Amino acid sequence: MRLADTQVAAQLLGEPQTGLAALVEREAGVVLDKKYQRADWGARPLPAEMLAYAAGDTAYLDLVRTRLAVRLDELGRGVWWAEECEALEAVRWEAPVPDPLAFERIKGAKKLAGEARDRLAALHAWREGVASAEDVPPFKVLRGETMLALAAAPPADLAALGAAPGVGRGTVRRAGREILRVLASAPQLPPKPKGQRFAIDREREARLKQTREARDRVAKELGIEPGVLAPRAGLERVVDGLPGAEAALAVCLGRRWRASVLAPALLALAATWREGARRPDAAPA
Questions:
Q1: Structural domain of residue 237, as residue ranges?
Q2: pTM of the complete model beyond 0.70
Q3: How many domains does the chain have?
Q4: What are phi and psi of 155, to 5 degrees?
């Protein structure tokens, strides 16, 4: 195992706090100073005190890793951790699929309509492009609430733009004219799609409830969070796939250790549902 995620280890142990500071305090008895946690780590050069802070964050990692590993092995969960870390090692970056409605994730965006909505979409697309080109977080270019205000009431000139909350003289100097151009020339978006109504599959929902209850009982016995034991997506695959063996259950849940722990409860449920499906006169589960 090349990667050892201490947060995952803590989750598998049922620790209520799984961040580095909490684990270092628990396992090493050291209280880390977190005063630079929200500092601007993109600044260069980093001051000496921030470099020391970063080094201090790693000073106790090996000790924490070793102690968590011992505790996991004592509970027979070391193999769980190994499988989780192997899964993390296999993760590969994938370019996000462009979403033309990504701007609607800004709080308050869905209240805008017409030209104001068009302006927000254009401003959001511009901001994402600038952030990508400059390799900075999008909020460093313009915050969501600022874009929302500019789209709702576009400023007439640079002076008005600079007076808008969240903009400031630096933004006006760097990109003021471009922002005004984007707001003035926003292309018209297609009309909002009408909301779709989806029929609720009552039988499927009932089965999902049964799987959640079974998972929650086992999680409580193990002293870990239910979502760590099996996320909802995995339970949905169980309900839809009706696995008949532990290997098939592992495919549904995404991990072998989850299947080994949950097999007695979930395979029994799946067998009941399969039997019900073979009986035409059977009532829904």
A1: 202-278
A2: yes
A3: 3
A4: -70, 150
